[in-house]
């Protein structure tokens, strides 16, 4: 499978990243192992998780996803050389454990390394901005971890254009390593927060970009077309907002293009992202090996210029 440079990190990744938020949430440990094996065996090589996954589940405390990933690596040590581990810090872990301050980063990285059962994290990301901590404090903490070999590269998630620019200025001013990647919300429906200044800046800075919610919580699979469909999955409640005339127009365009290729809407939605300038590799999750087969289809799918234009038109956000 053709790999792509992840910005200026020095890492090379396949054109799709597995979203590990499902581990310990919608899939148990045994199924998680099956999915991870199938993903790597298909030629993909990057897994994205976060320390906070899956604290939102009743009875969970955070760290469940990292723990399952670590147990998989411990059970199959040879897999470590085949996979890149991305994780994140900064979301609320409870009891004041949150943010991007030096002390918490230093503790959180050790917690993640322990759960993941690895010596180094390939990509360590600021999960969300922290208005209470100067960029230079965060970046200095990361610099110490980079110098110590505990992390290999740094990135940010959920930052807007001004925050990314400010962080890069702080890195230059203080002689620190800058963020090399960006993880924004971006898909055929949710285009407004990335298209425009943030995407332009990401391209200018040469950032590796790994968008999350690539399938809009499953809406772009075509599984949810009416409110009656929302009960099909634990994620159904988050899909209702997409059941709009624009959402239906996007599904219609996906149906037309997918019919041309003999595949499903999800594969086309992912292929559209993979072909976008300013996108390195979208993040997508699966809860079955059968679903995961669509990842390989998407990675090999070549959309024509006309098909990309049709998807662009159907998904263009309404002008204010």
What does this structure look like?
The protein is of the alpha/beta class and 320 residues long. It has helices at residues 29-41, 64-75, 102-116, 135-148, 161-174, 197-205, 245-261, 265-275, 289-300, 305-315; strands at 4-5, 12-13, 17-19, 46-48, 84-89, 123-126, 154-157, 181-183, 208-209, 283-284. Strands 9-8-7-6-5-4-3-10 form an 8-stranded parallel sheet, covered by helices on one side. It has a two-stranded antiparallel ribbon with strand order 1-2. Helix 2 packs across helix 3, helix 5 (161-174) runs parallel beside helix 6 and helix 8 (265-275) crosses helix 9. The longest helix is centred in the C-terminal third of the chain and has 17 residues, at 245-261. The model has no long low-confidence stretch (mean pLDDT 96).
Count of alpha/pi helices: 10
Distance between the termini: 41 Å
Averaging pLDDT over every residue, what do you get?
96
Structural class computed from helices and strand pairing: alpha/beta
- State the shape: globular
Strand order of the largest sheet: 9-8-7-6-5-4-3-10
Radius of gyration: 19 Å
The biggest beta sheet, please? 8 strands, parallel
Low-confidence stretches: none
In N-to-C order, the SSE pattern is EEEHEHEHEHEHEHEHHEHH
Percent range of helical residues: 40-55%
Number of strands: 10
- Beta percentage is 5-15%
Q: Quaternary status of these chains?
A: single chain
In short:
Helices cover 40% and strands 10% of the residues. The chain has 320 residues and is α/β, with parallel strands linked by helices. Helix 2 packs across helix 3, helix 7 runs antiparallel to helix 10 and helix 8 packs across helix 9.
